Each structure stands twice: as structure tokens, then as C-alpha cells.
Amino acid sequence: MEKRPVILVVDDEGYTRKLLSKLLGSLGYDVLTAVDGPEALRKFEASVADLVMLDQRMPGMDGLTVLRRIKELDPAVAVIMMTGYGTVEEAVKAMKLGAYDYLAKPFDNVDEVELTVKRALKDKFLSDENRYLKERLDESLSFDAVVGRSKAMRRIIDLIKKVAPLDSTVLLHGETGTGKELIAQTIHQNSPRASRRFVAVNCGSLSESLLESTLFGYEKGAFTGAVKTTTGYFEAADGGTLFLDEITGTSLKLQTSLLRVLQEREFTRLGDTVRRKTDFRLITAANVPMEEEIAAGRFREDLYYRINVIPIEIPPLRERREDIALLARYFLDRFREKLGKDVGPFTAGALAAMEAYEWRGNVRELENMVERVVALKGSGPIDAADLPPHVTGRGGAQDAAAPESYSAMPFQEAKETFERLYIEDVLKRVDGNVSKAAEITGIRRQNLYLKLKKYGLR
Q1: pLDDT of residue 400
Q2: Partners of 382 in the beta sheet?
Q3: b/e map of 23-61 (b: 16 or more CB within 10 Å)?
Q4: 318-454: same fold as 6-136?
Q5: How many CA atoms are closer than 13 Å to the CA of 379, on its beta-carbon side?
Q6: Angle at which helices 88-96 and 63-73 cross, to 10°
Q7: Domain-by-domain residue ranges, the chain?
Q8: CA angle 98, 85, 6 (to 5 degrees)
Q9: Could you report the per-residue pLDDT of 283-297, keeping only the tens digit for each?
């Protein structure tokens, strides 16, 4: 169920406010009212209005000033100007400032008001959708984006082709960097919900309070720092797909709230009492064994059964080495085009070195390495000597751990090499569990996520 459009009516005449509130309310819209410019701006900042019906002439701040301020706050909002003293010159000024249309008062024909409002909202939502699709155009995916020729990847591709047209909940499991979000995006882009939003959030990288406000949204004043009413991801994903990565990073309290939303398909913004309906397809992902999390009391068993309708296991890159050369060439083509570089192809020696490397950061580590090589390579074929030392073994874990190997490096490179290898080793010991790695290293979890991303380990 889609959310009801919100309309803010701004007029110093009580009769006009009452008339429009009754008319628009009967048409199924949520209506807010303001008597002057300052109140209108306050309510606009605190709301998520889709349309503003704005009186041209009001005491104090006039309509054109309010229009200008509103457009500065949200250029996408639709504004219909209203006046009983309309002139062509005023209408032209309003249109230049971004007004959608102009209505003359008194409203002799309420059908005209209704049609103008419907047209403005339709065009506004169409514009929003086009803007969203344009933003996603470069990221639009097909099944071809899931690259692999190994038996394991062919099985996964066949499975997501079967799953995509359905509306069933999917649980992706695999190590960090194996491409879980890419597969989630591919499922969405090939589903009946493809024209609506794909909303992704990494549960493990956010604190409990921040994740709660991100998912549920909040009203102005709900907590310190809540200066504006903000829609959450449950609302933003309505009609589309919500992807919750590293779902084991959620607290038991938040798991209980999430289970309730999945059962009832309703939620309440923080600081609000209004229950709102939402309809999204849920895809979740985890990089640690869910059964162990349940046994340890860190994850609710009933929520696990709710999200584990269609499980998909994604193997680490080191277990499908036949995909490494294919992926490396795929990333090489992408970054050559992106960076405008005439480099490549990979030599047999370079491919052999990559296929021998462990890739603890999986596909993401390989992708980041190829981008780095393309960026630094002048031209010509890419040989093993062009690859980072830790990949070829010239500065691998054993060599780099020796103090004498660092003395040949600049300080910053030596520091980063040690840090990457140290974090990689800790992650290996805890089977990729970022929370455990944060405890062992003494690095705050949010900061550890940044380092994982920096070094291509997630």
C-alpha cells in the first residue's frame, strides 16, 4: 500500500484553509495547514509534503518569498500558487521561481482545483521516479552482471533466475566481499518490483539507535538532533525491495521490532503514534553462520525462520578459482573504460599469480586491486610485476610479516601493509565475524568497517 500524499495549504484566510482541507481530505490526501509564511516554512521543514498550495498575498512574508525558500529546501516539491489578485506578471514570476501552476480565488469550480492537484502530484511522482531511475541507470543490472563460469556460480545464477520473479524472502549467506549486494540488486532488477526502489542498509555498520531511526524514520523532535521529519527505509522501500546486509549485526531489541514489521506489514515512525502500512520484498544477508548466532543467543530463531525462506549460499572466491581470470578481465574492461586507460590485457603470469592468491577479501578485493593496477599502469600488457606485492608473493603475508621487508617501503605504505595483513589475519581467525574482530583488535566496529572498505576486505 502506497503512502498517502501530503499537501500543505498556506493561506491567511480561514475559509480557504477549511475548504481545501475538507476537499483534499475527501480525496484521500493528508492535509497540513499554515496561516502565514513563517509557519509554512516551519511545517514544511518538519514534514514530508509532496505538494504546497500557497497563497500569493499574505501579511508579512509574501507568497513569492515563501515559494523561493521552499524551493531552496526541496527543489522537487510541487507548488501551486493561489491568489484573488492575480496578474500575468505575478504568474510569470511564480513560474520562473518553480511554481507548478496558478489557481485564481475564489474557487468557482472545485473540479478544476481537484484536477490541478491530481495533475501536479502525478507529474511530481513521475519526476521523482524518473530521477530515481536515472540515478540507477548506470547501476542497472542483468543476470550477466553476476560473473562466473564455475559450477557453483552457474547454480547460483540458475537459482536467482528462478527466484527473481517471485516475491519470496531471500537470505544470502557468504563471506564478506563475495558479492551479496550485487546478487540482491540483480534479483530486484529482474523482479516485478524493478521499477520501484532498491534500498540497501548495512546493519552491522550502524549503532542500534541509528539503525532504528534509519529503518523506521522519525518525527521532528523525536530525539536530540531530529530537526526535521524524515522517512525511514521501511517507507522508502514501499513497493520495492529492502536489502538488509549483515543482519546478524542487529540487536535482539531491533530484531523483535523487525519481526513485528514483517508480520504486520506496518510500522510507526519514532516519536509518532500513526501506524503506516508498507509493502516491500525483503532480502537479507549474513557473513557468519546463522545457526551459531542463534545458539549463542544473539539472533532470534523465529526471525531466522521468517527470513530464511529461500537461502542462497555464495562460495568464497578461493573455492572457485576458475572464476578469477574471468572476473579480472571483466573488471579490467570496466576500469579501462571508466578511467580512460589503454592498458592490458593480463599476461599469463599475472593471471597465474591472481589464481594462486587466497583473496580473503573475495571479489571486492579483486575488484579494488584491478582498479588500482589500471589507475597506476601507464600502458601495455599487465604483468605479474604490475600487481601488488602481497598478491604475487613478493610482499605476501610471510614476507611482509618480517621487519626487514618494511624497511624498503615508505612509512605510510609499510604502515598500511601491516594494518591490512593484521586485520586480514584477525578476520580469518574469527571466520569473518566483524564484531568479534572489533573486540580483538580494539578498533570500534564502525571504524573497522571503514578500514575493511579501504583495503578491499569487504
Answers
A1: 42
A2: 346
A3: bbeeeebbbbbbbbbeebbebbbbbbbbbbbbbbebeee
A4: no
A5: 2
A6: 20
A7: 6-136, 143-315, 318-454
A8: 45
A9: 999 988 999 999 999
